[in-house]
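Hey, resending since the last one bounced:
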Amino acid sequence: MAKTKVSNAVQSLGDHLREQRQAAQLSLRQLAEQTGISNPYLSQIERGLRRPSADVVQQLAKVLRISADQLGELGADVRGTPSVTVEDAVLADPDLTAAQRHALLEVYAAFTAPARAEREAAQQDEPDTQPDTEPDTQPVDEPLTA
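The structure tokens again:
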């Protein structure tokens, strides 16, 4: 039975993971235990038979102390923070009419509003760590001169 590889990029990802694992002096079994990822699945990733999800890449990167972005460049399925916002992509899409853009942006805003409000509320609940930049307005007692 012939083994098929997902792509050359996934194979290079597997090779890179194997090199990083060996540099960290971890066996495949140890890496599996530390990441909570099954030993057979890790083996398939290293052999280029599987493309890991973003969560798996994050777990591997954390244990191996390497950048998840670097793994993404090697062919992992990393869906981190986009460098272009959804709004920018919708506005830049030449295949959409102005009305379609407007509708998509309204729907996106409606879907993301609860999470955005929750995040903003959490930020407001955090203690203020910024130093006060307001000058003291308390009058200073000066000695009377006669």
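Helices lie at 8-23, 28-35, 39-46, 54-64, 68-73, 86-92, 98-125.

Sorry for the duplicate.
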